[in-house]
Amino acid sequence: TMKLLVVLSALVAFSECLHKIPLIKGKTARENLQEKGLWEQYRKQHPYNPMAKFYQTGIESMTNDADLSYYGVISIGNPPQSFSVIFDTGSSNLWVPSVYCSSEACNNHNKFNPGQSSTFQWGDQTLSIQYGTGSMTGRLASDNVEVGGITVPNQVFGISETEAPFMAQMAADGILGLAFQSIASDNVVPVFDNMVKQGLVSQSLFSVYLSGNSEQGSEVAFGGIDSSHYTGQITWIPLTSATYWQIQMDSVTINGQAVACTGGCQAIIDTGTSQIVGPTNDINNMNSWVGATANQNGEATVNCQNIQGMPEVTFTLNGQAFTIPASAYVSQSSYGCSTGFGQGGSQQLWILGDVFIRQFYVIFDTENQTVGLAQSV
C-alpha cells in the first residue's frame, strides 16, 4: 500500500500543477462591424494581410484579423488591474493599453494605470509593433503579471501610447505573445520563458484547447497537458525553427490528390490567426477543389446547403496525416458560409490558425522544441 500512496500523491501533486486559463469566445471584429453595417467599407480600408506579422525584420508584427474570437483574462500590478488578452503563439511580446494613450482603441478598452501599482517600474526603451494595418507604439515597463494563478514578478511588458484604428474593433484589450524570445521586440523575455526560468511551472510546456462552437470550454493550460481535451495518441513534431512555432508540412491533399504545398513547405501553428493561411495560388486551388467561389473581398464563399457533401482536407505534417472535415473548415453566420482558407500572398509560408487548432489539441513544448498534436474532443 505504501507504493500505491506514493503514486496517488504524485498524481495529486501533478493535477495541482496545471494552471488553466479559460478562454472566452467573444464577438469578433467582423461581427461587430457587420452589425453596424460597416464591414464592407472597413475591409476595403484595412485589407486582410495575415502574413504581415511574419515578415518584419526586427519588428514583430501582427495583422488585422477580423475573426479572432478567443481571449483570456490576466492581471498586472499591485493591486491587480485586469485585462483581456489574446494568447498569441505567433508573437512574443505582452502589451496592454495604458492611460497615456488617447487612440480610439485605448478609449474603448481597459487601460493600465502605472500610478496605481506599488510594484510598477518604468523601463528605458520604447516599443513599436507593426500591424498589417497600422501599429502600436508605447514604452516598456515591468510589474507583476498574473496569469492563471501564476504571478510572474518583474515581467517586462509594453504599455501603449498609440494604437492603430483597427484595434478599436477587437474584443481583447491587448496581446500576450507565446512564441520565442528570438522574435520579441526589444529582445524582451516572454511571459512563459519567465515562468520556466523562475520554476513557476512543473513542465516547460503549455497546451491549447479551442472548443468548436460553444462560447465556453476553451483554455490555455500552463505547465501541463489536460488529457480530458483530446483522444488517442499525441504526435510529437520537431520545430524546424525556434522563432515562431514552425514545423515541416509535407503536403495538403484532398481525395488523395496533392492540391497545395507540393514538395513540402513550412507552417506555423498560430493561435493569433483565425484561419488556415497559405500562398494565394495554393489557397485558390484548395478553395476551388472544395467548391468555393471568391466574392469581391477575396473571401471564398460556399452554399451552406453543400457542407455535407464537401471533401475532407488532409494536412500531412512531418509524415503524419491531420484531417479536417468541411464542418470544421467552413464557417457559418447569418451572412452566409465561407471557407477558413485565407490568402497569404506570394510568401511560401503557411499559418495553421484557429480553424486547425479547433480540431487538434496542441501542446507547445519549449524545452524539447516540439509541438504535440492530438485529436481534440
From TrEMBL:
From its record, what is one biological process in GO terms?
A: digestion
InterPro entries in the record: Aspartic_peptidase_A1, Aspartic_peptidase_AS, Aspartic_peptidase_N, PEPTIDASE_A1, Peptidase_aspartic_dom_sf
The record's annotation in SUPFAM superfamilies points to:
Acid proteases
In the record, which residues are listed under signal peptide? 1-17
UniProt keyword annotations, A-Z: Aspartyl protease, Digestion, Disulfide bond, Hydrolase, Protease, Signal
Q: In UniProt terms, what function does this protein have?
A: Shows particularly broad specificity; although bonds involving phenylalanine and leucine are preferred, many others are also cleaved to some extent.
Q: What is this protein called?
A: pepsin A
